[in-house]
Amino acid sequence: MSANPQSLRTTGPEYPLVINGRLVAGAMTLDVINPATGRLLTRCARADKAQLDAAVAAAKLAFLAWSATPIQARRQALLKIAAALEARGAEFARLLTQEQGKPLAAATHEVGGSVAMIRAFAAMDLPVKILRENDSERIVQQRAPLGVVAAITPWNFPLMLLMIKVAPALLAGNTVVAKPAPTTPLTTLLFGELCAPLLPAGVLNIIVDQNDLGGVLTQHPDVVKVAFTGSTATGRKVMASVAGTIKRLTLELGGNDAAIVLDDVDVKDVAAKVFRGAMMNSGQVCLAIKRLYVPDSLYDAMCAELARLADATVVGDGLDAATQMGPLQNKTQFEKVKEFLVDGRTRGKVIAGGMALERDGYFVAPTIVRDIPDDARLVREEQFGPVLPVLRYSSVDDAIARANGTEYGLGGTVWSADSKRAFEVAQQMTSGTVWVNKHLELPPDIPFGGAKQSGFGTEMGQEGLEEFTQSRIINMAK
Ligand code: NAD
Q1: pLDDT tops 60 at residue 473
Q2: How far is residue 264 from each of residues 270, 417, 421, measured CA to CA in Å?
Q3: Would strands 455-456 and 408-409 be described as parallel, antiparallel, or unpaired?
Q4: Per residue in 255-278, pLDDT tens?
Q5: How many domains does the chain have?
Q6: Catalytic residues
Q7: What are phi and psi for residue 308, nearest 5 degrees?
Q8: SS3 category, 347
Q9: Least buried of 55, 112, 261, 294, by fewest C-beta within 10 Å?
Q10: Same domain, 109 and 13
């Protein structure tokens, strides 16, 4: 496949949009804030509706040739993109820390995971299945591409969550219009710029908004599938907006994941793992442990160990090598988490943290709250921040019922020295993924998706690839 010469930028704005293979200035600009300082990091391009329409039109036109391109050539394009991203990994990681806030080591890990995600999809295939073949008939199932896919992503893992959508969409023969969250547009724009010379014009378009174009994109008559990751509240709007044209839809939404600790664990060992599972990315992980259920016999010891770990955590600018936890990603989330801190202080007993830090940027001390009732906001709602409520239970059945007593159903974890016991509990949890004695492991070849109001549809794995296709049955008489 030859590079598209039009995509090579010689002059122009920093962080341009990508429309039809060209790097273009936005109709407007967008201020991007560094969450570690609360101050302007840079400006980037912001699209208006006409630019969104141009991006969709380019994707629609490009679909004709891209969908007819052999999968082997599309695979090669993905592998070139993975190699290019890997080669510029340090640059992407630094930019990711600056726009998102996570420590540089975590950003480096996200970039590496994104490269691995592209390669994992590039290794997959969409073979024709022979469903029946005999003397009188032959029935086969093909996996046809859909058309223009809208990929809409949130701000917690801007690069990784983009790859989970873009890589399978492109491999399957679709074209894409991607829209990042307005507070983390930079790595997505840079990724678009990196891809522009490696893909035919229009195959991957990137537009940026200020939370004003998402609905326009999901309603667009020429978009046939929406792959959305974000909050449950926005997911509801997306679901309503695609009804008019019966678009294919994947919704990866919020979670309020419970971890259940059984009474036979090593407290120190499990506390360290639970702490990581709750506090990673400053708690801004859809699958973070957001409620922890601990038996009476271990409750005091577990609370004390979690508080010790919280007090020992180094919070700071992600670019400082010593930093273990960065800021919250944006001011809105910072204000929201501060409300959860008030709830924790008034409804429960704060034993570590409990306050925002007295410094510039959106920093909150990692917080552990004990003796908090089930009806507190911090227990019922998704806090999406480094504030963990620890809840006491007397019977495992009670813990399971309380863990399941939520409209969410994304993930969950069970911790026990006895894997048989843990498996029994795991089977009763009403969520899309349950980990036993580990957490937050998401291999690219294993399907992932939420239950209940955490969404529907699958990402990753062969199923995640097939979500970007339409089954076509060809039923032939012989
Ligand atoms: P959000 O719903 O506010 O925004 C997500 C994206 O949707 C952004 O790009 C935003 O601009 C866009 N958007 C806003 N309004 C829209 C509309 N009307 N139509 C279409 N798009 C619109 O979510 P967020 O605050 O950026 O992300 C945090 C949430 O995402 C949390 O609830 C978290 O649990 C969830 N999340 C889920 C997963 C998962 O895989 N299930 C992964 C990461 C984050």
Answers
A1: yes
A2: 11, 6, 10
A3: unpaired
A4: 999 999 999 999 999 999 999 999
A5: 2
A6: 252, 286
A7: -60, -45
A8: helix
A9: 112
A10: yes
Assess whether 292 and 415 both reside in one domain. Answer: yes
Asked whether residue 28 is domain-assigned, the answer is yes
448, part of any domain: no
Task: Give the nearest ligand 1 atom to 217 CA.
Answer: 20
Q: Are 386 and 353 in contact (CB under 8 A)?
A: yes
The pLDDT tens digits of the residues spanning 277-307 come to 999 999 999 999 999 999 999 999 999 999 9
Q: How high is the pLDDT of residue 283?
A: 98
- The answer to whether 332 and 181 are in contact (CB under 8 A) is no
Report the alpha-carbon distance of residue 23 to residue 116 in Å, rounded: 26
pLDDT for res 14? 82
Q: Is the CB of 253 under 6 A from ligand 1?
A: yes
Quote the CA–CA distance of 473 and 466 in Å, as a whole number: 14
Pocket flag, ligand 1, residue 450 (CB < 6 Å): yes
Find residue 32's DSSP bridge partners.
42
Asked if residue 409 has its Cβ within 6 Å of ligand 1, the reply is no
Atom of ligand 1 nearest to the CA of 252: 41
Q: Which two tokens stand for residue 290?
A: 């957001």
Range of the domain at 379: 258-443
Prediction pTM value: 0.96
Residues 427 and 298 placed together within one structural domain of the fold: yes
**Residues of the chain above pLDDT 90, percent:** 97
Measured by CA distance, the residue closest to atom 18 of ligand 1 is 215
Question: Could you give the CA distance from residue 49 to residue 207 in angstroms, rounded to a whole number?
Answer: 10
CA dist 118 and 336 (Å) reads 34
The secondary structure of 261-293 as a DSSP string is: E-TTS-HHHHHHHHHHHHHGGGG--TTS--EEE
Do 103 and 232 lie in a common domain? yes
Q: Please provide the DSSP assignment of 92-126 as one string.
A: HHHHHHHHH---HHHHHHHHHHHHHHHHHHHT---
pLDDT reading at 177 higher than 60: yes
Phi, psi of 348 (to 5 degrees): -135, -165
Q: What is the spatial distance between Cα 172 and Cα 77, in angstroms, rounded to a whole number?
A: 12
